Amino acid sequence: MTDWQARRRSRTFALFLVMISVAPVVTVARSSGAQDMSNRYQATAVVTGSDRRSRPTGFARCLREVLVKVSGEPRLSHDPRVDRLAAEADLFVASFDYVDQLAAYHHHDDQGTYDRPFNLTVHFVPALIDKALADLGEQPWRGQRPVIMPVLMVRGYTAAYLLSAESPAGADQRVAFADVARDLGMQVRFPTDADFAAWGVTVGQFPSPQVAPSADEAVVAGTLAFKRAVPGWAGSWRMRYHGIDYAWGIHGVNFDEAFRDIVRGVVRVASGHGAPE
User: Fold this and answer.
1) Which of 4, 88, 223, 271 has the fewest CB atoms within 10 Å, counting from its CB?
2) Quick check: is 81 in a domain?
3) CA-CA distances (angstroms) from residue 91 to 8, 11, 60, 61, 94?
């Protein structure tokens, strides 16, 4: 047995002992009415093929996402300390499965089999993720998570519009926003046209909705504009949460990343980690 194999076996056994010792605590917490977090210990990555070639990379990406989703600390996704954990992500995996994105299309050769895009969904052992977070000085965010309500005025390629629940121009953006929110363990509710009208929000000005959010909502107002000179999208956001004002933004990205910037900011504030970055 090589030194590397010995270290790996030792680490695997240690993690197994952690799982045994921590699991009863998790069970007790759930029985006392704590929020169900089981879906936050899983993530999905798009990989090439369903063999072993892309599996380590997929596991690593999913582990980073889960650490952020469970803790509410977006900075973990780029924390150098997580690199070591990501390199051994398989040690934290309970199970995984693949879904062929092109299952409905017939392929004619071996290349079509190996190079097809698959959704790799990875389920991690909660006790091991919690222990990894503790080693990083973090803990699971078990509190109630607010529903994000974006109040956005968008200046697209040709026209400006409000990103309402009914806006045809914002259909793809609503899907992207909901996907990003789900990746970070959050939910989103888009205002209706009637909401915008009632709040006095119109196209042509920075949104200042006249609304008092409920305790379980996080209202983020802002503008998202496509800048041809950059090129890319630029966003500016404002949020008042529990009596404190926050402002942040991003530029030179696609609109998926712009929405991710919003969600990451809300997550960081609501989980108690500090202001958006």
Assistant:
1) 4
2) yes
3) 9, 9, 11, 14, 9
Q: Please, how many CA atoms are within 13 Å of residue 212, restricted to the half-sphere of its CB?
A: 1
Locate 103 and state its tokens: 């299952």
Q: Which of 207-216, 233-242, 261-270 has the lowest mean pLDDT?
A: 207-216
In a domain, 10, yes or no: no
CB 34 within 8 A of CB 27: no
Threshold 0.85, pTM exceeds = no
Could you list the residue range(s) of the whole structural domain that residue 56 is in? 35-135
Place of tokens 């629940």: 165
> Is 99 in the same domain as 157?
no
Note whether 155 and 262 are same-domain residues: yes
Give the integer Cα–Cα distance in Å for 57 and 43: 13
pLDDT tens digits, one per residue of 188-228: 999 999 999 999 999 989 999 988 878 899 999 999 999 99
Q: What angle, rounded to 10 degrees, do the helices at 80-87 and 55-71 form?
A: 130
Q: Residue 86 is encoded by which pair of tokens?
A: 């990501």
**Gap between the Cα atoms of 241 and 219, Å rounded:** 8
Amino acid at position 170, single letter: G
Task: Give how many domains the chain has, as a whole number.
Answer: 2
160 and 124 assigned to the same domain: no
State whether 111 and 81 are in the same domain. yes
